[in-house]
Amino acid sequence: MAEKKTMQLVIVRHGESEWNKENKFTGWTDVDLSEAGVEEAKAGGRALKEAGFDFDVCFTSYLKRAIHTLNHVLEEMDREWLPVHKSWKLNERHYGSLQGLNKAETAAQYGDEQVKIWRRSFDVPPEPLSEDDERCPHLQEMYREVAMRDQLPYTECLKDTIARAWPYFQDEIAPQLKAGKRVLIAAHGNSLRALVMMFDKLTPEEILEVNIPTAIPLSYTFDEDWNVLDKHYVGDPDVIAAKIEAVANQGKAKK
Length: 255
Hints:
Elements: E1 7-13, H1 18-21, H2 35-50, E2 57-60, H3 64-77, E3 84-86, H4 103-110, H5 112-120, H6 158-178, E4 183-187, H7 189-199, H8 204-207, E5 218-222, E6 228-233, H9 237-249
Parallel strand pairs: 1-4, 2-3, 2-4
Antiparallel strand pairs: 1-5, 5-6
């Protein structure tokens, strides 16, 4: 009887960005890693190396905080030569007019529950950007090669993020896994939550409570039918728990 094949995927959210540090809604704003974020990314790479992980191909978004996280991870693993594919479809959820606003100050103004809805609801997007807003991706050079300009959002909810990230996974990443390639994805809290929701078959209510910590690799092993055989974070359990709690508390008003 032939041995059943398994598929190995690791996803990692970018390390702390400058706007994470300032507790701002970031979305598609191209903010770089903070010094702490660089160290987080390097630690993630060391954890993967120490645990014996290796990869054949990598995917990331168009945003430098994810790209640089991947670079640091690969540097620590001595795998900078690996092929890397970039796509805007792995970008963070677009936060519309909230981008650049402080999360705690916004919660103090509108209430914790409203901000939780904006941050974590399945199908409620924030107010959209206007077409002439400089934050609008239609006006930015990095999206000049996007063939269908109407695909670029002015705002998004998680449902919208899934609508672009999941088909990209199915079309571009899943075939690599099926071919036996070991895959690493470096992306963002919400684009990764979009994938986790589909992998774990979560409801819109269940995904609301999922918080992905910065720069902690999350390993998935699938069987040939995409059933999850194993799922675990790679690293120190106490550090992981503290980071998950920190993400959950970002959108609360300061007491």
